[in-house]
Design a protein that fits this description.
Order of helices and strands: HHHHHHHEEEEHHEEEHHEEEEE
Radius of gyration: 22 Å
Distance between the termini: 64 Å
CATH superfamily of the largest domain: paralog of FGE (formylglycine-generating enzyme)
Largest sheet: 4 strands, mixed
Helix content: 25-40%
Bound molecules: fe (ii) ion
Length: 422
């Protein structure tokens, strides 16, 4: 090959294919939504779908184009104010509880904004971007995948406020009569083990550094806690017994009148659940979802067990080779565990609360600049969830992944797996 020609053609961008597929998936998720669906904000914790679509686009403008594309002018000077989430270093922003006030720009205009930024990123990558720019595009893609899951959980919360219980997508026929297998304990010896991201492939800063930690001998349930088991907790008075609850959790039970998981509904003695497929009969064999840390902890106490630590969870997942799903799965409701030996449902059903607070690993250091605000500043008052859910995009989950929420939050696809000391 002529060496001059070889130098003239930029190397293919590793981030380009990821960027194209992630951006297309967001458009796919938005397809069933009208402008009103995408604009309303159902609570301060949730954001309008339109905001998710615009904020993830703003992230590429602020973190990539304005830094690495010479001469790039922002699509609109007002969009940084509207669609900055929490980056203090990138200027003032619309208060989070008032994101639903942004009735304009319309959903169509946001899709035009997305197309504009898509074209600019693709031009940048096709021309041969620096490794730093490639790395930031990759981060932007993983950031957008997080918002894809939030878009679904926030739409579910919004649609659950509607007395008509609309379906985000019409349900696929559900398997009937499938019972959950009996739960079994899997034992682990413990000792000094290594956890954390090993540097191969993408990982968020908070997943590392990989480090040693001490685990005492323990047992982990081979499957998730089911709706039937949770119903037994409800019927045994679990929500009325203060001895099962953390003090803050008990205060929340009383303040909010909690008596069952979010989205459960009792009608004429039958239990239903609001889902992305609309109101559906509660599947007793499926994993319980939409419970807070406080509820998960109380259930574990009632069951004579406890929640695993995040180190126990990760050690179990890696030592038994549990792999996240890599192919698209269009399911919008959790499904029962298969009747097979070994560790089941570690990924792809519901996130699993652990008893570990979200704190920095030993030798963790925040990145310089705005990107350092991504995770580090949230390391207070939140608990780690492990695994992934049915709403997690394919390719986004891994054993070292640390999701985190405050202990009273229950609108995510959050459930639990029991552990006990050995
Ligand atoms: Fe974000």
């Amino acid at each position: 090959m002529n060496p001059t020609l070889a130098r003239a053609v930029p190397a293919p961008s590793p981030a380009l294919a990821l960027f194209a597929s992630v951006r297309a998936h967001s458009a796919h998720l938005a397809a069933p939504l009208g402008d009103a669906d995408a604009t309303v904000q159902s609570m301060p914790d949730a954001s309008p779908a339109k905001w998710h679509l615009a904020h993830t686009t703003w992230f590429f403008e602020a973190m990539v184009l304005e830094r690495f594309a010479p001469g790039y002018a922002p699509y609109s000077p007002s969009f940084s104010y509207l669609f900055n989430s929490y980056y203090e270093t990138l200027g003032p922003r619309q208060p989070r509880p008032r994101r639903g006030m942004i009735t304009r720009p319309s959903l169509d205009e946001i899709m035009a904004y997305r197309a504009h930024v898509d074209a600019a990123i693709e031009r940048l990558l096709a021309a041969g971007a620096s490794p730093e720019a490639e790395e930031m595009v990759e981060l932007g893609c993983h950031h957008e995948q997080q918002h894809q899951e939030l878009l679904l959980t926030d739409i579910l919360h919004l649609f659950a406020q509607n007395p008509l219980h609309p379906a985000y997508r019409e349900p696929a026929p559900a398997a009937v009569g499938h019972e959950a297998p009996e739960a079994a304990w899997i034992g682990f010896e413990g000792g000094i083990v290594e956890i954390g991201h090993d540097g191969a492939g993408f990982g968020y800063d908070c997943e590392g550094p990989r480090h040693r930690t001490l685990i005492e001998p323990f047992r982990l349930s081979d499957r998730l806690v089911t709706n039937a088991e949770w119903l037994a907790f409800v019927e045994a008075g679990g929500y009325r017994d203060p001895l099962l609850w953390l003090s803050e959790g008990w205060a929340q039970v009383n303040a909010e009148g909690w008596a069952h998981p979010l989205y459960w509904l009792e009608r004429d003695g039958l239990w239903w659940s609001m889902t992305l497929n609309g109101l559906q009969p509660l599947d007793p064999a499926a994993p319980v979802a939409h419970v807070s840390y406080f509820e998960a902890d109380a259930f574990a106490a009632w069951a004579g067990a406890r929640l695993p630590t995040e180190a126990e969870w990760e050690h179990a997942a890696t030592s038994l080779g549990a792999l996240p799903p890599q192919t698209p799965d269009a399911r919008l409701r959790p499904k029962p565990a298969e009747d097979a030996p070994g560790l089941k449902q570690m990924f792809g059903e519901v996130w699993q609360w652990t008893r570990s607070p979200f704190t920095p690993y030993p030798r963790f250091a925040k990145a310089e600049g705005a990107v350092g605000e991504y995770n580090g500043k949230f390391m207070c008052g939140q608990f780690v969830l492990r695994g992934s859910s049915l709403a997690t995009p394919p390719g986004h989950a891994r054993a070292s992944y640390r999701n985190f929420f405050q202990p009273d939050k229950r609108w995510q696809f959050s459930g639990l797996r029991l552990a006990e000391d050995a």
